[in-house]
Amino acid sequence: MIFEKAYICESCFHIQKRFRRSVCERCKSSMFICDEWIAPTISTLNKKGYLTSYCCSGHPVSAGDKQKCFKSVDKKGKVKKFFIIETFGTYVAFKNKEEFSDLPTNFYFEELHDGCTIIRWQTFVGDTLSLPSLKDYSNHSERLLAVSTALIDLDYWAEKLPSKISVNC
Fold first, then answer.
1. What torsion, rounded to 10 degrees, do the Cα atoms 54, 56, 109, 141 define?
2. What gap in Å lies between CA 84 and CA 152, rounded to an integer?
3. DSSP secondary structure string, the chain?
C-alpha cells in the first residue's frame, strides 16, 4: 500500500514503520501514529522543539466520490442537499502557538485553534492559490506529484528551521 502508517515515539521521536510493540523500541516510551510520507518531517519538527499535535501528508486519493453530499433541514422542515467538493492536502498542527518568519512554498497560516498554529498547503488553480481539491486535478498522477512536491517543500523547510532546544541524540 502506498499510504501506510508509521509510528513515532512521543519522547525521542524515533520512527518505527511497523507497530510491533506498544512502546518505542529505543526508549520504551509511548508511540503515536502518523502518515508514513510525512513522518520524517514530523520527527524533525518535534526533535527541534516544534511540538506537533496532528498532521496529514495529503493523500492524493479519494475515499469515494469527488463530491460529498450533506443534508440539512430548513425552518420549514424541508430537506436540502448540498455538496462539498472533497479536498486533500498537507497540513501540520502544532501544540503551541508558533511564529515563523517564513513558511514552506505555498503554505499559509490557518486560524489558530485552542492556541495552536496550523500550517496548510495551498495549490494554484489557474492564477489563484486555494485549498487543493480533487476536481482540480485530472488524474491520480497529477495529485501524487502535487502532494509529493508539498511534502518535499515542507521537509526542506523543517530541516532549515533553527532548533528551539538542545537535543542529545
1. 180
2. 28
3. --S-EEEEETTT--EESS--SSB-TTT--BEEEEETTTHHHHHHHHHTT--EEEEE----S-SS-SEEEEEEE-TTS-EEEEEEE-B---EEEESS----S--STTEEEEEEETTEEEEEE-EEETTEEE--BGGGSSSHHHHHHHHHHHHHHHHHHHHHSPPSS----
- The cell numbers describing 109, all together, are 497560516
C-alpha span between 11 and 47 (Å, rounded): 9
CB proximity list for 71: less than 8 A, separation 6 or greater: 79, 80, 81, 82
- CA atoms of 130 and 141, how far apart (whole Å): 20
Q: Using CA atoms, how far apart are residues 137 and 115, in angstroms rounded to an integer?
A: 34
pTM equals 0.78
- Which tens digits make up the pLDDT trace of 116-147? 788 988 876 666 667 777 667 777 788 888 88
